[in-house]
Design goal:
Bound molecules: NADP nicotinamide-adenine-dinucleotide phosphate
Largest sheet: 7 strands, parallel
Family: Belongs to the short-chain dehydrogenases/reductases (SDR) family.
InterPro entries: NAD(P)-bd_dom_sf, SDR_fam
Number of domains: 1
Helix content: 40-55%
EC number: 1.-.-.-
Number of helices: 8
GO molecular function: oxidoreductase activity
CATH class: Alpha Beta
Number of strands: 7
Strand content: 5-15%
Protein name: Putative oxidoreductase
Order of helices and strands: EHEHEHEHEHEHEHH
Shape: globular
Structural class: alpha/beta
CATH topology: Rossmann fold
CATH superfamily: NAD(P)-binding Rossmann-like Domain
Length: 249
């Protein structure tokens, strides 16, 4: 995929991987639009990177529609939708007082929103000559993570849906990409002690994603995620035990 003069929407572009994606994509000469719930942080990110900030919550249908309408009004098309926004919740399913609300929230943000936003964006993507959708998944899609009862399941969902949508949207000319990073050094992973995992730098993650997009590599296994996928096939019980040792601050 050519990555110059494209109209690109990055959800969750106010911090972490999304912020770095918008920084590197703007630097390549693309028009980048970022969204997120914290309007102040988003505006700051916009000033820092040169991306256009549109505040909004990707779990709210009206916000999804408003963001896409603003892009249509200003740019007339969307070339690449990057479903990056996400949350990571570590808690005990039995004893946490907010388990019920956490289950709903994590599935809504990590699972439902990227899919509904993709569906709503299809008419605008159809106006592009080379449309694409990129899901930011995770290497944890390949192993259940005992400390995070729902997170790894949401990433497994995205991994499966990325494959089915790649098949279903191909006749429309839409290329579906998925990037699966390992642990990355962002706010999200702050509570995670490094232990067995080396935290990858957001700059390196994004460099690899951009290189993958340019080569039309539809499934990008980044850093240790390649090993996780491979281990999940040959030694799943061992891999599960390694993840069970993960400590949180
Ligand atoms: N960090 C890791 O170790 C790691 C590893 C593999 C995959 N990933 C994935 O990479 C993606 C980015 O994570 P990150 O590490 O960059 O975390 P991050 O720094 O916490 O960024 C997440 C972003 O998502 C936004 N967001 C959350 N809920 C939203 C909502 N409902 N609507 C709109 N925006 C929302 C947040 O902004 P607001 O709070 O302002 O809305 C924030 O800017 C996630 O999908 C994550 O699962 C991360």
């Amino acid at each position: 995929m050519d990555l110059t003069s494209k109209i690109i929407l990055v959800t969750g572009g106010g911090s972490g991987i999304g912020l770095e994606l918008s920084r590197q994509l703007v630097a390549l000469g693309n028009s980048v639009i970022i969204c997120g719930r914290d309007a102040g942080r988003l505006a700051e990110a916009g000033n820092l990177t040169g991306a256009q900030a549109i505040a909004g919550d990707v779990t709210i249908a009206e916000d999804q529609e408003r963001i896409l309408s603003e892009i249509e009004a200003q740019h007339g098309r969307l070339d690449l939708l990057i479903n990056n926004a996400g949350i990571f919740l570590a808690y005990d399913f039995n004893t946490d007082p907010d388990t019920l609300q956490k289950i709903e929230r994590e599935i809504a943000i990590n699972g439902t929103a990227p899919l509904t936003l993709t569906r709503r964006a299809l008419p605008l993507l159809a106006k592009s000559e080379q449309p694409g959708v990129l899901f930011i998944g995770s290497g944890i899609a390949f192993v259940a993570s005992p400390g995070t009862p729902v997170y790894s399941g949401t990433k497994a969902l995205i991994h499966h849906c990325a494959q089915t949508l790649r098949h279903q949207l191909r006749p429309l000319g839409v290329t579906v990409f998925e990037a699966l990073p390992p642990v990355v050094d962002t706010d999200m992973a702050k509570a995670l002690k490094s232990g067995n995992f080396k935290k990858m730098k957001p700059t390196d993650v994004v460099r690899d994603i951009i290189s993958g997009l340019r080569r039309n590599q539809t499934e990008m296994l980044l850093g240790q995620s390649r090993q996780i996928k491979w281990m999940s096939r040959i030694a799943p019980a061992f891999l599960f035990r390694q993840f069970a040792k993960t400590e949180f601050h």
